[in-house]
Design goal:
Strand order of the largest sheet: 1-9-8-6-5-4-3-2
Bound molecules: flavin mononucleotide
Helix content: 40-55%
Number of helices: 13
Structural class: alpha/beta
Length: 319
């Protein structure tokens, strides 16, 4: 099997490609499509009730018999533990954890339930902490990514994390095609996690307007702002976001910023043409809305071509 890595063995998947959690847009249809195509689909648990998560797990299972995971944003005690309990009680074997707060005992809980844990980190220090806490796999996510981001870009982050920990490392942030996939493997990763690329697929629970925004966006069409969640989050530029940033720079009051943020949050939850959309710099690489399975197929096929080309070039140089 081409590109069979330790990640495939660890997760029981065919290709080392993970669909990153996509809050609001990454539901059962997308997770099942990715898992049925040989990758690992991951259900988002943020912004939904516990009952909805139970329903989403059951629905995904009805659509696919392959492994799939659940994501938990592990920054708040009650939220993290309630979602972990649901994952455990509903037979989930793998969880991705982001925004990990070491004070919240969610890793211990998941380990006692024999669930594999993949921890999303944005720097070496957090990767080392997660290794000590006992996670199984690190997902090193560069600041090119959609969603919440750190400060380090993927190109320096991934090899630094690979050097710093003994665990398998998955690369995330800015990867949307075979070039990024092969580059990630060259940097020492055992697989990739993609969010923005899977957001613009047929199975994502997003409106056409949102997907069109990703298609229209270039590599410089996003900004990092705390306007949506209070934490640095990469979003497609919109006037309302630029205005929030401008007001923040000019020392606007907390109340004024909060009022603007609540407008931004409303626009985030809308599916309309003026929706606020979180996406990564990989938008610039996305020109169509294929099925999730096609994304995976193309990455594998094109990666084989890339590697053969590099091999031929190397052959020419050494000959
Ligand atoms: C719209 C959107 C929502 C996201 N929601 C979550 C989430 O709920 N939990 C999480 O851990 N990561 C979330 N992410 C991050 C992705 O899972 C993934 O790590 C990231 O998108 C990878 O970078 P890329 O966008 O360059 O592919 C989100 C990303 C996007 C674009």
């Amino acid at each position: 099997m081409p590109f069979h890595t330790v990640l495939c063995d660890a997760l029981g998947i065919k290709y080392p490609i993970i669909q990153g959690a996509i809050m609001r847009a990454g539901g059962p249809g997308l997770a099942a499509a990715v898992s049925n195509s040989g990758g690992l689909g991951v259900l988002s648990s943020a912004g939904i009730s516990t009952a909805q998560l139970v329903e989403d797990i059951a629905r995904t299972r009805s659509l696919c018999s392959m492994p799939f995971g659940v994501n938990i944003q592990a920054g708040a005690m009650e939220f993290a533990l309630s979602r972990a309990k649901i994952a455990s009680e509903n037979g989930i074997r793998v969880v991705t954890l982001s925004r990990i707060d070491p004070k919240i005992p969610v890793i211990d809980y998941l380990k006692s339930s024999r669930i594999k844990i993949m921890a999303v980190v944005g720097n070496v220090e957090k990767a080392r902490i997660c290794e000590q806490l006992g996670v199984d796999i690190i997902i090193a996510s560069g600041c090119e990514a959609g969603g919440h981001v750190g400060r380090v870009a993927s190109m320096p982050l991934i090899p630094a994390v690979v050097d710093a920990v003994r665990l398998p490392v998955v690369a995330a942030g800015g990867i949307a095609d075979a070039r990024g996939f092969v580059a990630a493997l060259a940097l020492g990763a055992c697989g990739v996690q993609m969010g923005t690329r899977f957001y613009a697929t047929r199975e994502a629970d997003a409106s056409q307007a949102e997907k069109d925004k990703i298609l229209a966006a270039g590599e410089d069409s996003t900004l990092v702002s705390e306007a949506l969640t209070g934490l640095p989050c990469r979003l497609i530029r919109e006037n309302v976001l630029e205005e929030w940033e401008k007001q923040k720079r000019s020392g606007a009051s907390e109340d004024a910023l909060k009022a603007l943020s609540s407008d931004i949050q409303k626009k985030y939850w809308q599916n309309s043409s003026d929706a606020v959309v979180s996406a990564g710099q990989a938008c610039g690489l996305i020109g169509a809305v294929p099925a999730a399975g096609e994304v995976i197929e193309n990455i594998i096929e094109d990666s084989i071509r890339i590697i053969l080309t590099v091999y031929n070039l190397t052959g020419c140089i050494t000959a």
